[in-house]
Amino acid sequence: MPDETIIPPPNPPTPPTPATPARPVAEILQQMDAVQREMETLRGELGALEQEQRLADLDRQRTRLEEDRGDADRLTRDAADALARLEPEPDAEARRLQDNAREAVVR
User: In angstroms, rounded to a whole number, what is the distance separating the alpha carbons of residues 107 and 101?
Assistant: First the structure.
């Protein structure tokens, strides 16, 4: 007889077993609610921090504007003073020229 090797039939596939949850669904839902409440709290804190930052930025801008206004006032006063000092000089020059002209006529 020929050498017959008996091949066993393949194992039948095992039917899938339903996954056993590691935690009950109620516990997972409670944890999700807790995380959601924490997220809402953190969003509120973030909004408050952003508001504080905006107020601090506005305060810095106000301070800078007040300083700039003071600088502008000072520059305006300096310019007005410089103009006031320059204005009499043309009159003085005109008087000097008139005096020179009179002296030339007198001679």
Answer: 10
Confidence of residue 89 (pLDDT cuts 50, 70, 90): low
Statement: residue 79 has pLDDT above 90 = no
Cα separation of 14 and 10, whole Å? 12
Please report how the helices 25-86 and 88-106 are oriented relative to each other, as an axis angle in degrees rounded to 10: 10
User: What gap in Å lies between CA 93 and CA 99, rounded to an integer?
Assistant: 10
pLDDT computed for residue 43 by the predictor? 96
Ordered alpha helix ranges (H), the chain: 25-86, 88-106
- DSSP-assigned letter for residue 3: -
